[in-house]
Amino acid sequence: MWLHDRLEPKIKEAKERIARIYKEHKDQTLGEYQVKHIYNGLRDLDLLICDLSFVDPQQGLLVRGYPVKEVVDFLPRANGNEMPLVGGLYYLLLVGEKPTMKDALDIEEEWCRRGDLPYHVADMLRAMPKDTHPMTMFSQAILALQSRSEFVRHYNNELKREDYWRPTLTDSLALTAKAPAIAAAIYNIKYHNRALIPPSQRADWSANFAYMIDKDWDTQYKELSRLFFIIHADQGTGNVSAHSGILVNSALSDVYFSCSAAINGLAGPLHGRANQDCLAWLLSIRDSFGGNPTEVQIEEFIWDTLNKGKVIPGYGHPVLRNIDPRFEVQHEFGKKHFSDDELFQLADKVYQIAPRVLKEHGKAKNPWPNIDAISGTLQFHCGMKEYDFYTVLFGVGRLLGLTANLVWLRALSSPLERPQSITTNMLEERIRSAT
Ligand code: NMX
Ligand code: MLT
């Protein structure tokens, strides 16, 4: 397949580079860790290598070295669309080169051929209790596709280790191709109990999601979807969803097992579910003050949330120490297209006030908004009112980056991840003998 050919020389080069680094520097000390790291979730330790993207504390997300805003600017656009083709982003992540229009369209075509959802997945989703959270449905739907893993089929037939990445790439393409159809099936079944709309052979990947949820008419929603999926795709591999996925994959569990695990991590309120929580929180501010709260009322509400011991959803970050550029591009989109929307104006006012309050509160290391502070507001404006669905949309995007990372991890024969755990007694003993 053409993508295999495109990747092969790059993989060879990367392997030689790693072999050189390992041979010449394997005993070099890079840093130290302290007791605090054990107790703070391994924060600030550079322990993973990911060449697809990086989160700089000040600049935010860089994809293959390019700031995410630049990426949104330079990726190819089809048919005069405002926002780029997601196929171009997947190409950039996977191949590491700026895509041409043809590259982006070729990926879109690969997806188009594989985009149908097997009947058993929809049947399974329909059989789930009505109050099942959409993220549970998403994780289960991915698992329900696992029987189709090309990696497993080839692995069972004596696939060589150096070739693991090949069927992993096929699985990555197959799962990402179906991601819009999975999300649309969840949406149509859970909220509308209606028949599924098969994917269009003409729409691009993001527009196809809009098509399958019966929003083919909604040009603005298609543009928002393109932007949304691109900026949610990757964020290094230390974040909870990607890290869950790569950990599971390190046991040679296939793309489906790995991605289902990642989606389970993304479902947590400190991670992807913050977009759902943020929208619910904004609506509760609005409703508490009968529609259009003043700045004083908003500040009161923020303090009230903090004083109850809760977090302000959409604010703070484990790595970032600045405004998330993924927030900024969405904020710009909202300002350009619907600056008069009441909820957008509320989210904007919160953005003017919350960082100051969080600084005064004095706990959060980063008082600035993250990607989730505004994404739900844009969805809500475009008619996607079912806000417990928003994290599924985050997950659809995240599968692009995660599965591209999995291809590379298998290409580089990344080992089983297995840190050692020690007991508290052992830790105390080590502290005693070190002092
Ligand atoms: N509101 C109130 N308190 C906060 C916030 C916030 N938005 N952010 C951090 N803190 C608190 C945090 O709970 C911790 O308190 P304690 O010492 O009592 O445990 C303290 O500030 C220090 O936390 P940090 O080191 O600044 O943040 P950490 O790296 O532990 O966590 C988040 C990062 C993102 C989990 C945290 O900022 C948070 O809970 N934010 C709100 C939820 C959210 O928006 N999550 C989405 C992140 C992006 N994503 O999509 O995944
Ligand atoms: C993400 O996109 O994964 C979030 O910003 C959380 C993180 O980077 O840890």
Task: Provide an overview of this structure.
The protein is an all-alpha fold. Helices cover 60% and strands 2% of the residues. The chain is built from 20 helices and three strands. The structure holds nitromethyldethia coenzyme A (NMX) and D-malate. The site of nitromethyldethia coenzyme A has 21 residues, from loops.
Features:
435 residues, 20 helices, binds D-malate, binds nitromethyldethia coenzyme A, mainly alpha
List each distinct ligand once: nitromethyldethia coenzyme A, D-malate
The percentage of residues in β strands lies in under 5%
Q: H/E order of the elements?
A: HHEEEHHHHHHHHHHHHHHHHHH
Name the poorly predicted regions: none
- Provide mean pLDDT, rounded: 98
Number of strands: 3
Strand sequence of the main sheet, in spatial order?
A: 1-2-3
